[in-house]
Structure formats: structure tokens, C-alpha cells
Amino acid sequence: MASVREIARLTNVSPSTVSKVINGRPGVNANTAKTVRRALESTNYQPAFKAIDWNRFLVVTPNYPAIFTKNTYVSTILAGIAEQASEMGTAISVKKLPRNINTVTDMKHMLLQDGSAGIILLALRDGHQFADLLGVENLPHVIVGETVHQHKVNQIVLDDAQSATRAMTFLIEQGHQRIGVILGHHSEIGHLQRLNACKQTMQKMLGDKGKLHDVACLSPDMTHGQQVINELFDCPKPPTAIFCFDHATAVNILNEANHRGIKIPQQLSLISYVNDGTVIMLDKQLTSLWVPTHEMGRQAVCMLQKQLDDNAAKQASARNSGASGEGAAKNPSRHQTTLMLPSRWTLGATTAPPAPAPSIATPSIMQETTTP
Description:
Order of helices and strands: HHHEHHEHEHEEHEHEHEHEEHHEE
CATH class of the largest domain: Alpha Beta
Strand order of the largest sheet: 2-1-3-4-5-11
């Protein structure tokens, strides 16, 4: 079997470069990494893996730094994972998703090098595309945060479409026909699912009478709250209600509306989708859909542990039944498991029926009467 130094000589790179490729670390040119991988496969290189710790889970987070600085969505899920793991006596290690994970072998090596028994993958804009790799290899895993339409994939997802449908139905039943929808990054699947649900609900309930204004707000800071208000209220017929997919942006919209003298909820109703666990003290409670991010983390640990327990039970059954069951134990049949967690509806003080349109006074015609 070739060593790291022999692979380095074959590919004319340093041993440290080979080590980076093997361990999925950054800092290696894409063409160089491809050459090293080819050499690893042709020489049947087998890295020295740690012994699997059956009480240790690997948690893989998204690779882009903004996910930790813009909101607490991921950190709240991580808190739920840590809490549940602590109660179960399970250790966790947290790593960012390496940029050079491309194959089933790469994914398997990442898990084995960590010595963990299974993977919890927090998939937002990146990560969910690797879910099928985990399913194909039958690696114990849970995908958190994205709907993955792959066979043998285990996932914890949110009821994004149902939440949006509920919010829009509530506003329309109150009498709103012009509704603004504030979404985040267009590439995020959850945002698109909610937006599509909003459009479908409005079309179903109002038809051509409804008007939906959708605005992309890529940052939750105060200037974007002002941008949203400017864009929506420059319309000839501005919306009478807003459903905001980001809680921080919803708070900024509320503050900007108050600054401009737009009365909430008399002139503008506002619903927030609280997806990051943030608690902000306001003078009035926002009508909100609270996403159970903390519970997502706890359930991910439970789902992963169940897979390991089921696999152990199948292996024990195969040993007891002899050689005839051995093949089934090595390649257990596994179907997709999806746990969808509902959001919690909180009726606050920021929604009300729309104000009636001002009536145009009609001058009365005084009829002159004469006394006989």
C-alpha cells in the first residue's frame, strides 16, 4: 500500500499537500487536488482511520461565514444538538463542510477520519447536494434544514409551505387583498417554498382581486428595512399587510413604519417568520410563526441514534441467523425518513383588518322649498 510520501513523489507535490487532500482541508488548487485523488485511487491508498466511537457524532455546518454572523439559526440548532447529546451521554464534534467533498468516498473518509459513528449535516445553501452520497453509502446520517428528494435520506425539515399558507390565509380572511412578501436569498429553498405557497394561496383565495408584492431583502440591517418600506410604499396602491420571512428585517420594518408615522396595525399589518430563535424586546408583540430550531437539533440526535440502534439490532439478528443473514446486515435496506416539524403560531398586536378606504364626500343638493 502506498504511503503519503510515495503519493507525493508520484504527483510531484509535498506530503503536506497530499495530507490536505486526504483530510479535506482547504488551500489546494483544484487541478492539483484532482491529480492527487487520482493517484490515491490508482494506488488503492487506505488512510489510517480512527477507531469508531459509537458514542460520538460528527456535526457538519455550512461553509459560508455569514450563516453564523447574520442570525442565530444554525447556533440554535447546534444548541439543541448539544443539549440532547449531553442528556444521552453522546459526544459531538463540529466541523465546517470541506469544499472539496465530491464523491461518496470523500464523504465516507470524512466520517471515518473523525472516528464518529454518524453525521448530522446542517444543509442550507450548501450541503444538501451531498445528502444522496450519504444515502447511497448507507452511512448513518441526518440532514437538517432542507427537503431532499432522494431515496434512503433521513432528514428533519420545517413546514415552510404550510407556514406561509397559514400566514396568507389569516391575512386574506381578515380582509387584506394587497400583501407584501419579504424574502431573503432567492437561492434558499425554504424561502422559495414559502414564496410559492404565498402565491398559490392568494390565487386560490382571491384570484385576480389579489396583489402580491415580493421583495428580496438580502440583509437584516436597518437600511434594508428602510429599503423595503420605500419600495412597497412607492406603489400607487401599497400593501395593507406584510409577511416577512426574516425576523430581524420584520423588526426593522416595524421600527421604520413607526418612524414614518405608519400606524401598526391600523394602516399596516405585519407577520414575522421567526427562524433564528431571536428574542427582541418590542413595545408590541409581533404576530409570528415561531420555527422550532432548537427542537430540530434535539430530534436530529434522536433520529441518528435510532439508525445506529436499528443497524446494531440487524447485525445481531444476522449473527444469530448465521451466514444466510450476513449479506442483509452489511447492506441493510433503508427507506427515506422525513420528520416535518410545525411552526408555532403566536397572535400578537401587529395584525388587524385593513382600514376601510376613505370615502369621497358627495356634496348634498339643497332643494329650495317655498312656503305656500
